[in-house]
Design brief:
The complex is a heterodimer of chains A (1011) and B (187).
Chain A lengths: L13 E10 L2 E7 L3 H7 L6 E2 L6 E2 L12 E5 L5 E6 L10 E4 L13 H4 L8 H4 L7 H13 L14 E13 L3 H12 L4 E4 L16 E2 L2 E2 H14 L3 E4 L2 E7 L3 E7 L14 E13 L3 E3 L12 E3 H11 L6 E6 L3 H11 L3 E7 L7 H8 L4 E2 L2 E7 L6 E8 L2 E9 L2 E5 L2 E3 L2 H5 L4 E4 L4 E4 L6 E3 L9 H21 L20 E2 L24 E3 L4 E2 H9 L5 H8 L12 H12 L3 H4 L13 H5 L16 H6 L3 E5 L2 E6 L7 H14 L2 E4 L4 E6 L3 H8 L12 E7 L5 E11 L2 E6 L4 H14 L7 E4 L4 E7 L3 H5 L3 E2 L12 E7 L2 E7 L7 E7 L3 H12 L5 E2 L2 H10 L48 E8 L11 E2 L13 E9 L4 E9 L8 E6 L2 E8 L14
Parallel strand pairs in A: 1-7, 8-9, 8-15, 9-12, 15-28, 17-24, 18-19, 18-24, 19-20, 34-45
Antiparallel strand pairs in A: 1-2, 3-4, 5-6, 5-7, 10-11, 10-29, 13-14, 14-15, 16-25, 21-22, 22-23, 26-27, 30-31, 32-33, 34-40, 35-38, 35-39, 36-37, 37-38, 40-44, 41-42, 42-43, 43-44, 46-49, 46-51, 47-48, 48-49, 50-51
Helix pairs in contact in A: 5-6, 5-11, 7-8, 8-9, 12-14, 18-23
Chain B lengths: L23 E4 L3 E8 L1 H11 L10 E4 L2 E7 L2 E7 L3 H11 L5 E5 L4 E7 L3 H6 L16 E6 L2 E9 L2 E7 L3 H12 L4
Antiparallel strand pairs in B: 1-7, 2-5, 2-6, 3-4, 4-5, 7-10, 8-9, 9-10
Helix pairs in contact in B: 1-2
The chains are: A alpha+beta (1011), B alpha+beta (187).
Chain lengths: 1011, 187
Amino acid sequence: MTNRFRTPSGGRIDRRARVSFRFDGQTYDGFRGDTLASALIANGVHLVGRSFKYHRPRGFISAGSDEPNALVDVARDRARTAPNLRATQVELYEGLNATSQNRWPSLGFDAGAMNDLFSPFLPAGFYYKTFMWPAGAWKRFYEPKIRAMAGLGVAPTLPDPDRYTQNHAFCDVLVVGAGPAGLAAALAASESGAKVVLCDEQAELGGSLLAETTATIEGQPAAEWLSQTLATLTARDNVTLLPRTTAFGYFPHNLIALAERVTEHLASPDPNQPRERLWKVRAREVVIAAGALERPLVFPDNDRPGVMLADAGRTYLNRYGARVGERVVIFTAGDCGYRTALDLKAGGVAVVAVADLRAEVTGDLPARALAAGIDVRPATVVTGTSGRLRISAAHLAKVKDGAVGPSEKIACDALLMSGGLTPSVHLFSQSRGKLVWDEAAGAYLPGTSAERERSAGACRGVYGLAAVLEDGYAKGEAAASDARTHAAPGRAAAPASVAKGRAFNAAGDHASADGFIGATPHARNPAFVKAFVDWQNDVTVKDIKLATREGFRSIEHVKRYTTTGMATDQGKTSNMNALGIVSEAIGEAVPKIGLTTFRPPFTPTTFGIFAGEARGDLFDPVRKTAIHDWAAEHGATFEDVSLWKRAHYFPKAGEDMHAAVARECRAVRSSVGMFDASTLGKIEIVGPDAAEFMNRMYTNAWLKLAPGRLRYGVMLREDGFVMDDGVVGRMAEDRFHVTTTTGGAPRVLAHMEDYLQTEWPDLDVWLTSTTEQWAVIAVQGPKARAVLEPLVEGIDLSREAFPHMSVREGRICGVPTRLFSVSFTGELGFEVNVPATYGRAVWEAIFAAGEPFGITPYGTETMHVLRAEKGYIIVGQETDGTATPDDVGLGWAVGKAKKDFVGKRSLERAAFFRPDRKQLVGLLTKDPRTVLEEGAQVVADPKALVPVPMLGHVTSSYMSATLERSIALAVVKGGRARIGQTLVVPMPGRMIEVDVVEPVFYDPKGERLDG
Amino acid sequence: MAELMPSLPLDTLAAAPRDVAVARLVALGPAARLVFRGREAAIGPAGEAFGVPLPREACRVNAADGRYALWLGPDEWMLLALDTDPAPIFAAIEAATAGLPHALTDVSARSTGIEIAGPQAAFVLGQGCPLDLSPEAFPVGMCTRTLFHKAEIVLVRTAPDIFHIDVWRSFAPYVWELLEEGRREFA
């Protein structure tokens, strides 16, 4: 059965290019230009899926992106597996491998179909009513089972190997939809030189013109006009044409997201090409030319494979040369169905009957159908269908005086339905434009705009080829003109251009506004029939009526209760009929019931396109210091500190972290170690008012700090809590070199800029981030001076000339340096600041000079241990945003005599003087080998009544190699008054007794700082 | 003492860039970079001392003899001189602006330069930069601080098809690799 349903000629497929593909393991032939759907239809295959809830056999409904049924899985390999693709949009390529979904063991025989028999027990909202007992079973049992039974495709579990890119684009006019309205709009807009982007979700641009065989435009066949128009647009430099590109989201300020499928249609895509590209288009003006979607009719058994939309049947024939059947019945509520009847008959298909819902059938198209010998039956409905995996007969019945008569079975292999057209207002609705019910059109149409857009053509209820072309042209002109008068910032606005308009001479059978909304009548017992409203979520008329009986009146509530319109197709085919059914059931007009809001995406969109290139190592910037590579070469392990990679410790062969850190600590205490402190935030504060500014930002007093001296500074937030700290050097009267914590650098700079710009614009002082200007090498330990002395020029390193907490400028190894005598270890120490360009070279020079002393590179873990031994806090570890300077033992750094500084007033709050504030203390475990866990709670009496009162928690805890015992810092309520007490740290299975001590464990007098 | 070798953050990555004629990628060499901020009175003398007047129009670059003055804010400029020692420039500007409220800071080592050139350069940049990089919206001689993906950059259009990126050192590999990703489809 190869292409038995293919016409001998015609259509836009390339009949010289045969394409072989597989569906559910069977090989078929199609042609280039086919979709998976058209190729299967040409091969007589209509059964392509099982429904979501009842597992009913399903076939194609439409020929476009509104398809609710034909969702397939297309697999290139195990990782490149895309579920839930609409077969109507999958372009055929050689070797395409598609499978159906939601069936087991096979599409023809599906065990899940027993749900259909149990359907009386699965009414709307069944999961709200059943599965409620026993408690907890929902999560453990019901939900997983229901999810396995229902549902659609299966996502691949392997990482996605494809590339996705994103780009920002700007244009004067974005035209969405390349049907006649969109093409005319693009022509008109680009005429004036405006930058135009024209996108369309289909592989070929042309929209409805692609399925026109008889229409003419300007005296030419529509296809001819289309190719000339595309050639004209292609030749214009100011036009970008984007086929296979779905405008899926309309965001504020005319930001429209387009998903371009770049390689999806290719048999062997170039791995350098992205699979998909996200266009973030900022359009000055938008023309929405999204067209209209045909509405199905809602009648019993309307989901049998072979029941399709009439215009889809016409499209398959005219565009793809594929007949949807040999004997076709058409059920229509307007003239649209006749257009299909005439085309099908001309294409060699037997049109057995046209059942017309209308009692009076007049007009040109029905007359021509009659003249062609087609059996036209007015006042006739379909009351059911026969067949199992494919329709075999339609049951037709006359309606007389509102009563449905007996039905007659008419054998057929396809039943095409047409309920009229629904303007595609999705994007307009997404733009927050207001939709207005139009009684004449029987549809919601775009009303007041919220964005700079206008709709053109069928998506605003304009039908008829000439009218659509003229509307499109006028809207294109208007958009280009508006774009000129609303020029971008920095560009001069131009006067509006004069709209000339253009008349199009076009002829063809065109769609019209007539149609039907709701469920068509039948005389069968409603309890035993299924008339589907929403195919994808298996919602029937019965479900919606049940919802209205249970009191739901707003469509928003009916939607959520029945799930109608909530499937991945967002109710493209179902929304209006659901409204009609609710309207009839509760006796209210459609506009009173409301309309649900359309939200992005218009059609399902891959996660890959949102991630773009932000994945793997490029998900976030990985910041590395100038010395990073040296550390990596010397075996360092790294830890993440904000975006930075910092050397954590430098294990030697056979060492674990504990051993490496112990060795590094001993080296610093006994001889000398070196540490990469480059990630510390740095800010250069310069200007005549620099000292005044420092005085206001920090708690300390700065005015009297002499140039060449360092001071440890504490910065508060307005609320009086510690925000950041760091060592600050006064380089000159008007210049400070400020350091911040690694993670706090951007926050501190923004905090300072904020005050400077909003509170004190009068101060003559400016801030510049110098974090990355300087590589910082900390050389710490009793031998630090000896290591550096031979390398430094122009600085006297002696204790007298260069005391602790000083800064000098000079050269090291010939490179300019700002040399700090500062210690975060408690040992004699220096921090060598050199331009980052020389960071590694100077590091290597110091390492070489230190070798005679056994200089030891150390990482952040050793740095943490050494500072904890000295009781130096780390902002963010000992503080949590609720610690005052006094809480963490920094009361001494607050300039009591200062008139003001940020946070000063807050420090006077009564709560800050309570004796039970959490205060920084040291904890020593009774057993020196026990290392507490950071974050562990501290209590007084673990046997107290639950909840046991918490006194505080451990903030830092290490094994100290120097002290040969564990040490910990903690914040404890009224901690300073508890020094000398024994408290308890309760841990699972044991109670750890700790002595509360002063938070300085090593060299409390600081005698080692000067070496 | 042997002279130390400077190292730039893209030394390794940029050693062998992919050959893409429509968007060539080059890591630029060392440069003097000074941030000048100050009150009105200091702006003129600073430009005179630098040898290039500081542009007063927003987001514009003035250039002469390999020296560039980039407008980054109403009171902020980046002064850039290719392959030059920053110290003499620093001293000259300080001398010219002595007594006038201003701040001059040497940030020569803070960032590194990347050039992307070719007819697709703007498209490649547009993958990560949210600005309109068309010649009308972003003409030759325009500069701005902006984003490239998640990294802050300073972007300059030096010729119709040539852009310069100035990016902090630690962000440079991230920017470079994303530029390489963006160029891949033209390889």
